[in-house]
């Protein structure tokens, strides 16, 4: 049992890092699970990969609690209205992924959750990060605050999030790329991506839990809790790192990392599959 909990903790570390950096949590999960196999059913593991994201989400809630709290007594009436405006834009942005993702959830798992798709998406979006950052070199994002983020732009960023339904794309990667292309600063792109993840990942986790059912063994409950707690702690570190990093750096390093990882994933499975 201790060994299985250690494996769950390692997967929690991977989730906490890769969920927020635009490098694809799915791609890393596939690689990690190739070497670290938890002794559990396929149905449990399908649910586990998604539900441990709740730990990562709680890190966003904690770090941005004041900014996202519309009833804080420390805020003026105008600040409360601005906070509600952020939530309205988050709701607008999550609609495309919800409309497309819910009915296609099983089909996507069955047909696209494979190393070929993941490796290809890692490489394609790695190239796009490099190309877009080169294109934007020297340009300053027009949208520097959430007040400047229009509802139309929020919806369009949500359309980019739909692309992340394909494994290997990276939810944060797709939304950050889309936001930068539409003219936001890197900081607003990253933070809006974080905020979008709250309803999207809560919804995805709820969907997986309902499909799996709520009859867990004690061992399964312990593995879920360990995975979520570790993902929570590591996510706090990863989010703070990313926000600090993008103040003085672009996303090209992540692009190169994705390309290298995609080639490694494809090569490994072609040899050993």
Describe the structure in your own words.
The chain is mainly alpha-helical and 273 residues long. The chain contains 12 helices and no strands. The longest helix has 36 residues, at 77-112. It has one domain (2-272). Helix 7 packs antiparallel against helix 12, helix 8 (151-162) runs antiparallel to helix 9 and helix 9 runs antiparallel to helix 10. The protein is globular and about 50 Å long.
Rounded mean pLDDT score: 89
Which value, in Å, is the CA radius of gyration? 18 Å
Can you tell me the residue ranges where pLDDT is under 50 for at least 5 consecutive residues? none
Fraction of residues in H or I helices:
over 70%
| Total individual domains | 1
How many strands, what sense, and barrel or not for the largest sheet? none
Encode the helix/strand succession as letters: HHHHHHHHHHHH
Shape: globular
Query: What is the straight-line distance between the termini?
Result: 28 Å
| Binned strand content | under 5%
Question: How is this fold's topology laid out?
Answer:
Layout: H1 2-18, H2 25-35, H3 42-51, H4 53-63, H5 65-68, H6 77-112, H7 115-135, H8 151-162, H9 171-182, H10 186-212, H11 218-245, H12 252-272
Q: Care to give the gist of this entry?
A:
By secondary structure, the chain is mainly α. The protein has helices spanning 2-18, 25-35, 42-51, 53-63, 65-68, 77-112, 115-135, 151-162, 171-182, 186-212, 218-245, 252-272. The model has no long low-confidence stretch (mean pLDDT 89).
């Amino acid at each position: 049992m201790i060994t299985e909990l250690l494996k769950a903790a390692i997967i929690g570390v991977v989730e906490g890092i890769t969920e927020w950096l635009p490098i694809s949590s799915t791609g890393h999960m596939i690689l990690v699970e190739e070497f670290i196999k938890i002794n559990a059913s396929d149905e449990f593991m399908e649910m586990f990969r998604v539900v441990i994201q709740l730990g990562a989400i709680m890190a966003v809630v904690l770090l941005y609690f004041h900014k996202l709290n519309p009833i804080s007594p420390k805020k003026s009436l105008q600040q409360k209205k601005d906070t509600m405006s952020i939530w309205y834009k988050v709701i607008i942005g999550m609609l495309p992924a919800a409309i497309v993702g819910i009915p296609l959830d099983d089909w996507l798992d069955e047909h696209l959750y494979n190393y070929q798709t993941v490796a290809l998406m890692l490489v394609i979006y790695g190239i796009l990060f490099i190309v877009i950052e080169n294109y934007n070199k020297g340009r300053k994002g027009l949208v520097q605050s959430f007040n400047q983020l229009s509802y139309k732009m929020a919806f369009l960023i949500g359309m980019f999030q739909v692309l992340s339904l394909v494994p290997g794309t990276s939810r944060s990667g797709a939304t950050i790329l889309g936001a930068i292309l539409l003219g936001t600063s890197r900081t607003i792109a990253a933070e809006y991506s974080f905020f979008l993840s709250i309803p999207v990942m809560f919804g995805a986790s709820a969907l997986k839990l309902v499909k799996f059912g709520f009859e867990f063994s004690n061992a399964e409950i312990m593995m879920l809790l360990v995975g979520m707690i570790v993902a929570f702690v590591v996510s706090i570190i990863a989010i703070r790192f990313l926000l600090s990093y993008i103040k003085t750096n672009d996303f090209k390093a992540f692009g190169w990392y994705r390309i290298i990882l995609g080639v490694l994933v494809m090569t490994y499975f072609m040899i050993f599959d």
